[in-house]
Design brief:
The chain has 272 residues and is mainly β. It is built from no helices and 21 strands. The strands form 5 sheets. The chain has a 6-stranded antiparallel beta sheet with strand order 11-21-12-17-18-19, with no helix packed on it. A 5-stranded antiparallel beta sheet has the order 16-15-14-13-20, with no helix packed on it. Strand 18 and strand 19 form a beta hairpin.
Length: 272
């Protein structure tokens, strides 16, 4: 009779259930990606009803069924709706990830139209230290540069931000009725989606932040018609979420005349 096989993650308790476990091999390291339900906040802080987490280890001891020198537990995506991430290892040793954008036990504004959830952008994975770096695989879909200042922004596009030490500014992407707010300062980038329809996951807060150390930074905000993904410092931090604009027209970028954040934009091509 076959017997069960269990892997020691290196933590005493990771909640009452682990969903969607992935064992990936990235840049010579072992990366365990999973969704612990019921995880105590003292083990690792998170904001959503259920998190998507990862651990980077040096190797696996197959005899003892343990991770070798596992690092700390980290949030895969510090945004609102990332869940059930899955990884594919290619023959050339590249590792690619795609996530489900929608949390269990949560209702969304699209429910009344009988649909829920979507996929994230595909992301190329790399390991730096005991942290994952996630890069959106979008090169073939980046289109022509588009004006940003005082111009209409299509909700199938990408905005690129650059800022220096000492910045303290809030940018608004939206129209007169609904918007996303992005706050940039020395400690982090914060996205506030309270100004646009989203989900009852807002019971767990309407803002999420990517922490930063002071210095020069950059970020790319990928906008789609029902989701956004923010990649900070070439994928060192990722913040994504769902939103459901009632009016997707006349969206613009609003920023101060003496702006401290440089912004450029590109259209992105549809894959449908």
């Amino acid at each position: 009779m076959a017997t069960g096989w269990a892997l020691d993650f290196g933590f005493d308790s990771l909640g009452y259930m682990i969903e969607c476990p992935n064992l990936a091999f990235v840049d010579g390291s072992v990366v365990l990606i999973f969704c612990p339900q019921g995880l105590d906040q003292s083990v690792c802080a998170y904001d959503n009803i259920y998190p998507n987490m990862y651990i980077v280890a040096d190797d696996i001891d197959w005899a003892s069924r343990k991770l070798v020198n596992p690092g700390p537990l980290h949030n895969l995506d510090v945004g609102f709706d990332c869940y059930a991430a899955q990884v594919v290892n290619e023959p050339n040793d590249h590792a690619h990830l795609i996530s489900w954008m929608g949390l269990p036990d949560t209702t969304y504004a699209s429910d009344e139209e009988d649909w829920q959830g979507c996929y994230s952008l595909a992301r190329e994975l790399h390991v730096i230290g005991k942290r994952l770096k996630q890069l959106p695989m979008m090169d073939s879909l980046i289109g022509a540069q588009m004006p940003v200042a005082n111009a209409t922004i299509d909700l199938v596009s990408v905005l690129h931000f650059e800022w220096q030490i000492g910045v303290d500014e809030t940018l608004v992407v939206g129209n007169s009725k609904e918007q996303l707010r992005l706050k940039f300062n020395d400690t982090g980038v914060t996205v506030d989606r309270s100004g646009v329809a989203s989900s009852n996951a807002d019971d767990f807060g309407k803002t999420r932040s990517v922490p930063l150390v002071a210095g020069k930074h950059s970020a790319d905000l990928y906008l789609d018609r029902s989701c956004f993904e923010l990649y900070v410092d070439d994928g060192a931090g990722v913040l994504s979420g769902r939103y459901f604009p009632e009016d997707a027209t006349n969206w613009t970028l609003k920023q101060a005349a003496d702006t401290q954040v440089a912004v450029t934009g590109h259209k992105t091509k549809s894959i449908f």
